[in-house]
Amino acid sequence: MKSLNKLLAAGAMGLLSMSAFAGSETPEGKVQATYPPISSDAYEKFGGKYGMDRWVESLFKYIMLDNRINYIFAAHGKIDRQIKLNQQLVAVMLGAPGVEYQGASMSAAHEEMGITLTQFNAVVEDAYLACEDLRTPYHTCNQLIAALAPFKRSIVTR
Amino acid sequence: MNGNIRGFGIKAATVLAFGASIAAVSSPAQAGIYDAGKVLATSGVNITDGAAGGGITPWAVIAGYETNQGINGSIHYTYANLPNYSLNSLGAAIGFYDRLELSYAYDLLPTGSTFNTVGLLTNTLTGGGPNDTGIDPFNTAIRMDIFGAKLRVIGESIYDSDNLLPQVAVGGFYKINHNKELMNTLLANKAKDFEAYVAITKIFFPLDLLVNVTVRYTAANQTGLTGFGGPNKNKREFRPEVSFAYLLAKNVAIGAEYAAHGKNTDGRGVKVGTLDTSVVGTITNALNNIGVSGPVGNIVNNVNDTLTQRESDWFDVFFAYFPSKNLSFVAAYANLGNITLTPKQTGAYFSVQASF
Question: Residue A143: which of B38, B165, B206 has the nearest Cβ?
């Protein structure tokens, strides 16, 4: 029932601001606003900084083992730096205090790469595998998926 | 019945051949137009009308696991076991670039005890000779072909979590019910007709929830299995359908669906020869009005109830399991209410689906 109320409240808010948000650039520098909002304790549930950092490492483990997409990341190089930037990014998106994302905007970082939705979805599937790896519940994992989902518009260009 | 079963076999062969042709497309692996890039379970399942959706309601998702990068498809077989009927649906759907969906389903509804009784009765009345009710004494089976098309118009059901814009699709079905005489007996206006629908789908990840609302423009009685329209008209109307799917895990969903149905033949009888059994209702009312009760009144009332058609909205609760992108299973409890002359049609629903 609480969830339903949240949904209805989000519905009312969303309708008011829908035109403002639709298709707009996703901000990398602050908590992602979603409808309904992601649970406020998501970062904590992911195990705080330590857990979140391990999650990104696990994500990259699965990505680099995923023949659908690993060559893209390999060609880009500097995997350690990619991991570090992604650790900053997911922490910021889930509202971790005192973390700053130091990378380029999602669109600037991906515009030349011609990423397809099929490739983007492969990363999403690897993200769920990383959650399972860290024994992170599906519901908690979905909070992160919701927070990262709007980046699809910046990353997928084909 | 043998003919029906043979027909079903031919349809099965067609559907499998169709599946094989999708598989053939897939053999050049990563290159070419084959694609299976959707996230697991986000293709939905194939409904008994053949389109991608829940169990009975078409959703705004496009069939198959393709994204905008290619083509994919799926085949399904669904069996629902009801007290007086069993519903079999066999079909295939192809998704093109996550934009256009073409589907086909063959629905077979063997009828049970009630139709056997009516068939025996008419058989007796006609002295065992031919009758034009379309009901045989035993094993009357209703057969329907369903051709479907769906176009995803706007929106992104999955990734637009920062706004409330849903994914919207428009679609339609052309349904050909092959039991024309029986449809006449059931007082339906038509045996073939089209339906159109608008479906909107949105996933709310923070709640692990998928919501779908569909409005169908249709004159169907029991999805068309008992024809379209009523005794004197074939007026289409807008009927709402709602689905909720709660995602328990990345490969498991549970949920519920509701689909409003029409009242085209509600309260009407069936037509046997030149007799419309609605007349029985008129007689019953007249007898009740002049105060005839007791055993005679009861018998007349019972006959009236037995021969009166009713239609109910459909409802189901389901459990869907997606062990891989190539295979999914649905188990459901379906409450289809009154179907023509028979009340309380509730039962188990099973569906298996393969994707390529």
Answer: B206
